[in-house]
TrEMBL record:
GO terms for biological process: glutaminyl-tRNAGln biosynthesis via transamidation; translation. It is an enzyme of class 6 (ligase). It comes from Methylomusa anaerophila. Its EC number is 6.3.5.-. GO terms for molecular function: asparaginyl-tRNA synthase (glutamine-hydrolyzing) activity; ATP binding; glutaminyl-tRNA synthase (glutamine-hydrolyzing) activity; transferase activity. SUPFAM superfamilies: GatB/YqeY motif, Glutamine synthetase/guanido kinase. This is Aspartyl/glutamyl-tRNA(Asn/Gln) amidotransferase subunit B. Keywords: ATP-binding, Ligase, Nucleotide-binding, Protein biosynthesis, Transferase. Heterotrimer of A, B and C subunits. Pfam families: GatB_N, GatB_Yqey. It comes from the Bacteria. It catalyses: L-aspartyl-tRNA(Asn) + L-glutamine + ATP + H2O = L-asparaginyl-tRNA(Asn) + L-glutamate + ADP + phosphate + 2 H(+); L-glutamyl-tRNA(Gln) + L-glutamine + ATP + H2O = L-glutaminyl-tRNA(Gln) + L-glutamate + ADP + phosphate + H(+).
């Protein structure tokens, strides 16, 4: 490989507090424009901010879950810049003394584990939202909604340890999973509560000197992050191959065209003239409080994955898929707790349940089939009451009606036929009607019996016990 790609990600995640970081205004998404505002978050003269304690708690939770050191003393700073969606002309953030530093998270790409360092986790307030009449690159005008101003954020900055766009996507997926597990953010990218800026540079393979980076903005999905980095990787390689040089700049991802576009040059690092926020006292964190928060953390994705593999014998892929979402992992544990065999439960969850959830565009929390009812359906299959094929039909009815499986089976007369006497006549009729398939089977063509089984199942409307049908066919041939 001629070049090595170096990627670092800056992720902003809105915290799930009821009120803003320095005032009592609501953080509710989707309110009428400029209604969740007050003199404090609008930065009017003479007002004083007051820190929301829940924001500090959530930031500490995030730092601990990301294996960071929690600093006993941190402070807020003013980050000075002018932009229409920033009413104070500065953003209250953290600079040299953030709440958490020196963490990491583990990812796995193509079966290979990798540790990505996390430089820092810090608290800050969100800016407002500009609504462009056109695209971010070309607009006739823009309107500003200050509802989001003052909504609490944590910014999570990675080390430049990511080497491929695929690793970047895996990092974001794991980070989102962790933040949702610890219940500090809903991480809805479509609502802007999880946003990512990506820094990417190329350097000659084997070099340890960082190349000139470009920052990519407007990445509104994990897929967009991967695609944007892939495009920028190719663009920078072409520039270098042609003897050109990379310009340090900010670029915007154009989803429709699949390209990055230059927004503004950034030849030198911007001087934000940080200075300590004089209206807020420093934050002194009690170590005992940190210990209490650490003790309250739930089982995190990696630990849960390891448990499912160790206790239930699930494959790494199955366990990774199930534990990617806390809701799905909770749902799965509940199915098994209700008596379902672990591997069968995993197959149903990743199969029929996920298929219906995707089709309905809903989450596991909204699934109309409860874990208890799904476990009941699996139990009917295990006992031979219904076949696997009939079970899928029953599941459809369960999804639509929210009834339990046993009720549906009784109402629709779907009990599996496991009485030899009730099947023998049909088996013999199928054998008599298909002499060629019988001859093929007797000649050693084992596949031929599959056709005969299918004919019996067709005549019994799928209710015959397939194992019993196989047995009777073989005996009579």
């Amino acid at each position: 490989m001629k070049y090595e790609t170096v990627i670092g990600l800056e992720v902003h995640s809105e915290l799930k507090t009821q009120s803003k970081i320095f005032c009592g205004c609501s953080t509710k998404f989707g309110s009428e424009q400029n209604t969740n505002v007050c003199p404090v978050c609008l930065g009017l003269p003479g007002v004083l901010p007051v820190i929301n304690e829940k924001v500090v708690e959530f930031a500490v939770r995030a730092g601990l879950a990301l294996n960071c050191n929690i600093l006993p003393f941190s402070k807020f700073d003013r980050k000075n810049y002018y932009y229409p969606d920033l009413p104070k002309n500065f953003q209250t953030s953290q600079y040299d003394l953030p709440i958490a530093v020196n963490g990491y998270l583990e990812i796995e790409v193509n079966g290979e584990p990798k540790r990505i360092g996390i430089t820092r986790v810090h608290m800050e307030e969100d800016a407002g939202k500009l609504v462009h009449a056109g695209t971010i690159v070309k607009s006739d005008y823009a309107l500003v909604d200050y509802n989001r101003t003052g909504v609490p954020l944590v910014e999570i900055v990675s080390e430049p340890d990511i080497r491929t766009p695929e690793e970047a996507k895996a990092y974001l997926e794991k980070l989102k999973s962790i933040l949702q597990y610890i219940d500090v953010s809903d991480c809805k990218m479509e609502e802007g509560s999880l946003r990512c800026d990506a820094n990417i540079s190329l350097r000659p393979a084997g070099s340890t000197t960082l190349g000139t980076k470009a920052e990519i903005k407007n990445l509104n999905s994990f897929r967009a992050v991967q695609r944007g980095l892939e495009y920028e990787q190719e663009r920078q390689a072409e520039v270098l191959d042609d003897g050109g040089r990379i310009i340090q700049e900010t670029r915007s991802w154009d989803e429709a065209r699949g390209v990055t576009l230059s927004l503004r040059s950034k030849e030198q690092a911007h001087d934000y003239r940080y200075f300590p926020e004089p209206d807020l006292v420093p934050i002194v964190v009690d170590p005992a409080w940190v210990d209490d928060i650490r003790a309250s953390l739930p089982e995190l994705p990696d630990a849960r994955k390891a448990r499912l593999m160790a206790n239930y014998g699930l494959s790494s892929y199955d366990a990774e898929t199930i534990t990617a979402s806390r809701e799905m992992a909770d749902y799965y544990d509940e199915i098994v707790k209700k008596g379902a065999e672990a591997k069968v439960a995993a197959n149903w969850l990743m199969g029929e349940v996920s298929k219906h959830l995707n089709a309905a565009a809903c989450s596991v929390a909204e699934c109309p089939v409860s874990p208890e009812n799904l476990a009941g359906l699996i139990s009917l299959i295990d006992k031979g009451t219904i076949s696997g094929k009939i079970a899928k039909t029953v599941f459809e009815d369960m999804w639509e009606s929210s009834k339990d499986a046993e009720t549906i089976v009784k109402e629709k007369g779907l009990l599996q036929i496991s009485d030899e006497g009730a099947i023998i006549a049909i088996v013999e009729a199928v054998i008599a009607a298909n002499p060629q398939s019988v001859a093929d089977y007797q000649a050693g063509k084992d596949r031929a019996i599959g056709f005969l089984v299918g004919q019996v199942m067709k005549q019994t409307k799928g209710r015959a016990n397939p194992d019993l049908v196989n047995k009777l066919l073989k005996e009579r041939m």
